Amino acid sequence: MPLIKPFPGLCPAPGRAADVAAPPYDVMNAEEARRMVQGRPWSFLHISRPEVDLPAETDPYAPEVYAKAAENMARMRREGVLLQDSADCFYVYRLTMGSHTQTGVVAAASVAAYDQNRIKKHEYTRPNKEDDRVRQIEALAAQTGPVFLVYRSHPEVDSLLARIADTPPEVDITAADGVRHQLWVLRDRGQIEQLMQNFDAMPALYVADGHHRSAAASRVAAAGGADAGSAGEAPRDYFLSVIFPHDQVQILDYNRVVRDLRGLTREEFLVSIGSRFSIALSATPVRPAMHGEFGMYLPGQWYRLQVAAARIPREDPVQLLDVSILANELLQPILGITDQRTDDRIDFVGGIRGLDGLQARVDSGEMAVAFAIRPTDMEALMAVADAGEVMPPKSTWFEPKLADGLVSHLL
């Protein structure tokens, strides 16, 4: 079974990509999604967030929500807004945000490789979110949210994708957030075979974002083995993915804000920190630039923290992460936050909101303290995955985000 395969994608009809393309289903709440679809009858949010077409009080996990998604997809296909390609294809996908560009390939990735950990994970999943994606896939008989995968940069693959991206794209749109999305359809059998062979020679791929989608695809494949074709494979034995080279991927910081100081006064809190970190006042917001360095904001004042070198673990790839150092040396022993997944005293702020977003949460009185963390890099993520370990929650924030609706994988 190949690591990746081409497939006949379900795509917007020519000229309709701008009408269809939507942000990923999980980056907005229901109210925001309802606003986004106003005046946009063909937005893919009608499929990925179908509760926008149901009463506001509707449970987003209710059966009628998944039924509505299927109804909306059927309508968009019936009206010719979405069309399926007639042959198996790869799709070259380029994202541009400001000066940053990344070029990858949309492919069907092997569920067997995922199950055997050749497509490696680095996060736990939540059963309720997995269940949601399973029901969505089954209702649509399609995978519509691509899993964001990464491969270690490969000269032949990178060069081929760059050459294709030098030709006129079939889709070229700029979303409301300013991110440019370009798509090329790769139909050349020689180039398709070249890509498949190059990927088959790779030891591993890595899930960057989309752990719930890939886990759900595995469950759907396991439940539906009876529909395999003559080759012993079925479309559900593969999952929709976009695969980028590791050195083109951009990870932003994923910062923390905490609601209280666990009963400590400001002075007591700083003294406690001082036993583990050096502390320096800063007249400007602190964006950490080195391992073990953090920015901290208390009302009216930024601080630069540097953990003592002797306190940084040297072997365990998880404990080496800056997010782990902050948790082990400050959040847990000083602020008493032992489980970031469940403790409602802590919240997470993606780096796309900037350091001003952290400061605003504290200055408003909502939060007592904010921490700016150096972004996790891809080498660190892959080291964790290679070790078969799991990263702390909210360790990575990938930008730019993939669009939903440009390519779907029918089962």
What would your notes on this structure say?
There is one protein chain. The protein has 13 helices and 21 strands. It is of the alpha+beta class and 411 residues long. The protein has two domains: 4-248 and 399-410, no CATH class; 254-374, Conserved hypothetical protein from pyrococcus furiosus pfu- 392566-001, domain 2 (2-Layer Sandwich), CATH 3.30.1760. The strands form five sheets. Strands 1, 4, 5, 6, 8, 9, 10, 11 and 12 form a nine-stranded mixed sheet that branches. Helix 4 runs parallel beside helix 6. It is globular, with a radius of gyration of 23 Å.
Question: How is this structure best summarized?
Answer:
The chain is an alpha+beta fold and 411 residues long.
Kindly report the average pLDDT value: 95
Structural class: alpha+beta
The Cα radius of gyration reads: 23 Å
Q: What is the number of strand segments? A: 21
Number of domains: 2
Strand residues, percent: 15-25%
Please, what is the oligomeric state?
Answer: single chain
Question: Helical residue percent?
Answer: 25-40%
Distance between the termini: 17 Å
- Main beta sheet strand tally, sense and closure: 9 strands, mixed
Features:
alpha+beta; nine-stranded mixed β-sheet; Conserved hypothetical protein from pyrococcus furiosus pfu- 392566-001, domain 2; 24% strand; 411 residues
Helix and strand arrangement:
Layout: E1 4-5, E2 10-12, H1 17-20, H2 30-36, H3 45-48, H4 63-78, E3 82-84, E4 90-97, E5 100-110, H5 111-115, E6 119-120, H6 127-140, E7 142-143, E8 147-151, H7 155-164, E9 171-174, E10 180-186, H8 189-200, E11 205-209, H9 211-223, E12 238-245, E13 251-252, E14 254-258, H10 266-274, E15 277-282, E16 293-298, E17 301-307, H11 322-331, E18 346-350, H12 354-363, E19 369-373, H13 378-386, E20 397-398, E21 409-410
Parallel strand pairs: 6-11, 8-12
Antiparallel strand pairs: 1-5, 2-3, 4-5, 4-10, 5-12, 7-21, 8-11, 9-10, 13-20, 14-18, 14-19, 15-17, 16-17, 16-19
Helix pairs in contact: 4-6, 6-9
